[in-house]
Protein: Monooxygenase
Amino acid sequence: MNSDGVPTVELRIWGVDRVMPALGRMASGRRALRATPGLRFAKLLGTGTARTFTMESADLRHWAALTVWNDDDAARASSNSRVLRRWQDSSTEELRITMRPLRSKGRWSRVDPFGHRSHDGQPATGVRPRDWAGPVAALTRARLRPTTMASFWRAVPPVASELAGAQGNRLALGVGELPIGVQGTFSLWDSAHDLTDFAYRSPAHKSAISRTKPARWYAEELFARFAVLDITGTYQGRSA
Structure:
Protein backbone atom coordinates (compact mmCIF):
# COMPACT_ATOMS: atom_id res chain seq x y z
CA MET A 1 0.00 0.00 0.00
CA ASN A 2 0.97 3.67 0.12
CA SER A 3 3.15 4.77 3.00
CA ASP A 4 0.05 5.63 5.02
CA GLY A 5 -1.64 2.31 4.25
CA VAL A 6 -4.30 3.75 1.94
CA PRO A 7 -5.15 2.14 -1.41
CA THR A 8 -5.33 3.94 -4.73
CA VAL A 9 -8.75 3.68 -6.39
CA GLU A 10 -9.40 4.17 -10.09
CA LEU A 11 -12.54 4.28 -12.17
CA ARG A 12 -12.13 3.86 -15.90
CA ILE A 13 -15.06 4.46 -18.25
CA TRP A 14 -14.70 3.38 -21.86
CA GLY A 15 -16.77 4.37 -24.85
CA VAL A 16 -17.17 1.71 -27.54
CA ASP A 17 -18.72 1.57 -30.98
CA ARG A 18 -19.11 -2.25 -31.05
CA VAL A 19 -21.39 -3.68 -28.39
CA MET A 20 -20.99 -7.44 -28.89
CA PRO A 21 -17.19 -7.51 -28.43
CA ALA A 22 -17.66 -5.39 -25.30
CA LEU A 23 -20.10 -7.95 -23.91
CA GLY A 24 -17.50 -10.64 -24.64
CA ARG A 25 -14.81 -8.73 -22.74
CA MET A 26 -17.18 -8.34 -19.80
CA ALA A 27 -17.77 -12.08 -19.69
CA SER A 28 -14.16 -13.16 -20.14
CA GLY A 29 -12.19 -10.48 -18.34
CA ARG A 30 -13.31 -10.69 -14.71
CA ARG A 31 -11.08 -13.55 -13.55
CA ALA A 32 -8.04 -12.37 -15.51
CA LEU A 33 -8.39 -8.84 -14.13
CA ARG A 34 -8.46 -10.08 -10.54
CA ALA A 35 -5.10 -11.80 -11.13
CA THR A 36 -3.34 -8.49 -11.90
CA PRO A 37 -0.38 -7.89 -9.55
CA GLY A 38 -1.00 -5.24 -6.91
CA LEU A 39 -4.77 -5.36 -7.33
CA ARG A 40 -6.83 -5.97 -4.21
CA PHE A 41 -10.38 -5.49 -5.55
CA ALA A 42 -11.87 -5.09 -9.03
CA LYS A 43 -15.24 -5.00 -10.75
CA LEU A 44 -16.10 -4.75 -14.43
CA LEU A 45 -19.29 -2.72 -14.65
CA GLY A 46 -22.03 -1.81 -17.05
CA THR A 47 -23.18 1.79 -17.03
CA GLY A 48 -26.41 3.68 -17.40
CA THR A 49 -27.86 7.14 -17.21
CA ALA A 50 -28.83 6.87 -13.48
CA ARG A 51 -32.37 7.96 -14.34
CA THR A 52 -34.26 4.76 -13.53
CA PHE A 53 -31.83 1.84 -12.79
CA THR A 54 -33.76 -0.35 -15.21
CA MET A 55 -32.84 -1.70 -18.64
CA GLU A 56 -34.38 1.46 -20.08
CA SER A 57 -31.41 3.46 -18.80
CA ALA A 58 -28.65 0.99 -19.73
CA ASP A 59 -25.88 2.48 -21.87
CA LEU A 60 -24.39 -0.28 -24.03
CA ARG A 61 -21.87 2.16 -25.50
CA HIS A 62 -20.08 2.80 -22.20
CA TRP A 63 -18.49 0.28 -19.84
CA ALA A 64 -16.38 0.71 -16.74
CA ALA A 65 -13.86 -0.86 -14.38
CA LEU A 66 -13.44 -0.01 -10.71
CA THR A 67 -10.00 -1.05 -9.45
CA VAL A 68 -8.50 -0.78 -5.97
CA TRP A 69 -4.69 -0.97 -5.97
CA ASN A 70 -2.31 -1.63 -3.09
CA ASP A 71 -0.38 1.56 -3.80
CA ASP A 72 0.35 4.25 -6.38
CA ASP A 73 3.06 2.17 -8.04
CA ALA A 74 0.64 -0.71 -8.64
CA ALA A 75 -1.90 1.71 -10.10
CA ARG A 76 0.70 3.18 -12.45
CA ALA A 77 1.73 -0.32 -13.52
CA SER A 78 -1.86 -1.15 -14.44
CA SER A 79 -1.07 -0.24 -18.03
CA ASN A 80 0.53 -3.69 -18.17
CA SER A 81 -2.79 -5.40 -17.44
CA ARG A 82 -3.87 -7.39 -20.48
CA VAL A 83 -7.54 -6.94 -19.63
CA LEU A 84 -7.32 -3.17 -19.24
CA ARG A 85 -5.20 -2.85 -22.41
CA ARG A 86 -7.83 -4.75 -24.41
CA TRP A 87 -10.51 -2.35 -23.24
CA GLN A 88 -8.36 0.68 -23.94
CA ASP A 89 -7.34 -0.53 -27.40
CA SER A 90 -10.98 -1.25 -28.31
CA SER A 91 -12.44 2.00 -27.01
CA THR A 92 -13.29 5.22 -28.78
CA GLU A 93 -12.64 7.21 -25.59
CA GLU A 94 -11.59 6.66 -21.98
CA LEU A 95 -12.19 8.64 -18.82
CA ARG A 96 -9.86 7.72 -15.95
CA ILE A 97 -10.44 9.04 -12.43
CA THR A 98 -7.79 8.43 -9.75
CA MET A 99 -8.90 8.68 -6.13
CA ARG A 100 -8.11 8.04 -2.45
CA PRO A 101 -10.86 6.89 -0.05
CA LEU A 102 -12.12 9.46 2.44
CA ARG A 103 -14.75 7.31 4.12
CA SER A 104 -16.82 4.24 3.40
CA LYS A 105 -19.56 2.24 5.03
CA GLY A 106 -20.88 -1.18 4.11
CA ARG A 107 -19.79 -4.12 2.00
CA TRP A 108 -19.44 -5.01 -1.67
CA SER A 109 -19.58 -8.74 -2.38
CA ARG A 110 -19.17 -9.26 1.38
CA VAL A 111 -15.91 -7.33 1.67
CA ASP A 112 -14.80 -3.77 2.42
CA PRO A 113 -12.94 -2.77 -0.77
CA PHE A 114 -11.44 0.52 0.34
CA GLY A 115 -8.88 -0.05 3.04
CA HIS A 116 -8.05 -1.12 6.54
CA ARG A 117 -9.79 0.48 9.48
CA SER A 118 -8.45 2.91 12.04
CA HIS A 119 -9.04 2.50 15.76
CA ASP A 120 -12.37 4.35 15.55
CA GLY A 121 -13.71 2.04 12.84
CA GLN A 122 -13.39 4.57 10.01
CA PRO A 123 -11.28 3.96 6.89
CA ALA A 124 -7.66 4.94 7.50
CA THR A 125 -7.30 7.36 4.60
CA GLY A 126 -4.33 9.57 5.34
CA VAL A 127 -6.59 12.53 4.44
CA ARG A 128 -9.10 13.90 6.90
CA PRO A 129 -12.36 14.58 5.02
CA ARG A 130 -12.67 18.05 6.52
CA ASP A 131 -9.18 18.96 5.26
CA TRP A 132 -9.75 17.94 1.64
CA ALA A 133 -10.50 21.03 -0.48
CA GLY A 134 -10.43 19.46 -3.94
CA PRO A 135 -13.07 17.66 -6.00
CA VAL A 136 -14.73 14.58 -4.51
CA ALA A 137 -16.55 11.54 -5.81
CA ALA A 138 -19.32 9.41 -4.32
CA LEU A 139 -20.04 5.76 -4.98
CA THR A 140 -23.20 3.95 -3.92
CA ARG A 141 -23.70 0.28 -4.57
CA ALA A 142 -26.52 -2.03 -3.50
CA ARG A 143 -27.89 -5.48 -4.04
CA LEU A 144 -31.66 -5.08 -4.05
CA ARG A 145 -34.08 -7.46 -2.39
CA PRO A 146 -36.30 -8.94 -5.14
CA THR A 147 -39.43 -8.19 -3.15
CA THR A 148 -38.62 -4.47 -2.87
CA MET A 149 -37.28 -3.69 -6.35
CA ALA A 150 -40.49 -2.09 -7.60
CA SER A 151 -40.67 0.24 -4.60
CA PHE A 152 -37.03 1.23 -5.01
CA TRP A 153 -37.40 1.93 -8.74
CA ARG A 154 -40.36 4.22 -8.07
CA ALA A 155 -38.21 6.28 -5.71
CA VAL A 156 -35.34 6.78 -8.17
CA PRO A 157 -36.65 9.24 -10.83
CA PRO A 158 -37.24 12.19 -8.45
CA VAL A 159 -33.75 11.77 -7.00
CA ALA A 160 -32.21 11.51 -10.47
CA SER A 161 -33.97 14.70 -11.57
CA GLU A 162 -32.55 16.61 -8.63
CA LEU A 163 -29.09 15.13 -9.16
CA ALA A 164 -29.02 16.22 -12.80
CA GLY A 165 -29.41 19.86 -11.80
CA ALA A 166 -27.46 19.83 -8.54
CA GLN A 167 -24.94 22.57 -7.90
CA GLY A 168 -21.37 21.37 -8.41
CA ASN A 169 -22.26 18.02 -9.99
CA ARG A 170 -19.83 17.31 -12.84
CA LEU A 171 -20.76 13.73 -13.72
CA ALA A 172 -23.35 11.18 -12.66
CA LEU A 173 -23.94 7.73 -14.05
CA GLY A 174 -25.37 4.42 -13.05
CA VAL A 175 -22.99 1.49 -12.59
CA GLY A 176 -23.63 -2.16 -11.90
CA GLU A 177 -22.41 -5.73 -12.23
CA LEU A 178 -25.79 -6.86 -13.55
CA PRO A 179 -28.52 -5.01 -15.46
CA ILE A 180 -31.11 -5.64 -12.76
CA GLY A 181 -30.84 -5.84 -9.00
CA VAL A 182 -27.11 -5.21 -8.45
CA GLN A 183 -26.42 -1.59 -9.18
CA GLY A 184 -25.38 1.81 -7.95
CA THR A 185 -24.28 5.32 -8.85
CA PHE A 186 -21.02 7.14 -9.31
CA SER A 187 -21.00 10.92 -9.11
CA LEU A 188 -18.24 13.53 -9.36
CA TRP A 189 -18.46 16.89 -7.55
CA ASP A 190 -16.59 20.17 -7.45
CA SER A 191 -16.34 20.00 -3.66
CA ALA A 192 -17.41 18.09 -0.57
CA HIS A 193 -19.74 20.96 0.26
CA ASP A 194 -21.67 20.50 -3.00
CA LEU A 195 -21.98 16.75 -2.43
CA THR A 196 -23.11 17.18 1.18
CA ASP A 197 -25.58 19.88 0.20
CA PHE A 198 -27.22 17.52 -2.30
CA ALA A 199 -27.14 14.49 -0.01
CA TYR A 200 -28.77 16.14 2.98
CA ARG A 201 -30.77 19.04 1.56
CA SER A 202 -32.22 17.66 -1.67
CA PRO A 203 -35.89 16.89 -0.81
CA ALA A 204 -36.17 13.73 -2.94
CA HIS A 205 -32.82 12.38 -1.77
CA LYS A 206 -33.62 13.07 1.89
CA SER A 207 -36.92 11.26 1.45
CA ALA A 208 -35.21 8.26 -0.15
CA ILE A 209 -32.66 8.08 2.68
CA SER A 210 -35.40 8.15 5.30
CA ARG A 211 -37.23 5.31 3.53
CA THR A 212 -34.21 3.04 3.05
CA LYS A 213 -34.30 1.24 6.39
CA PRO A 214 -38.08 0.83 6.81
CA ALA A 215 -38.50 -0.19 3.15
CA ARG A 216 -35.67 -2.76 3.46
CA TRP A 217 -34.61 -2.11 -0.13
CA TYR A 218 -31.07 -3.49 0.18
CA ALA A 219 -29.75 -6.95 0.94
CA GLU A 220 -26.23 -5.46 0.82
CA GLU A 221 -25.14 -1.84 0.53
CA LEU A 222 -22.05 0.32 0.36
CA PHE A 223 -21.54 4.08 0.39
CA ALA A 224 -18.11 5.60 -0.19
CA ARG A 225 -16.62 9.06 -0.65
CA PHE A 226 -13.28 9.77 -2.33
CA ALA A 227 -10.75 12.55 -2.73
CA VAL A 228 -10.25 12.96 -6.49
CA LEU A 229 -6.55 13.22 -7.31
CA ASP A 230 -6.54 13.20 -11.10
CA ILE A 231 -8.94 13.11 -14.06
CA THR A 232 -7.83 12.35 -17.60
CA GLY A 233 -9.68 11.71 -20.85
CA THR A 234 -13.30 12.17 -21.82
CA TYR A 235 -16.77 10.72 -21.27
CA GLN A 236 -19.33 11.23 -24.02
CA GLY A 237 -16.82 13.49 -25.75
CA ARG A 238 -16.40 15.85 -22.78
CA SER A 239 -13.82 16.18 -20.04
CA ALA A 240 -15.21 15.84 -16.52
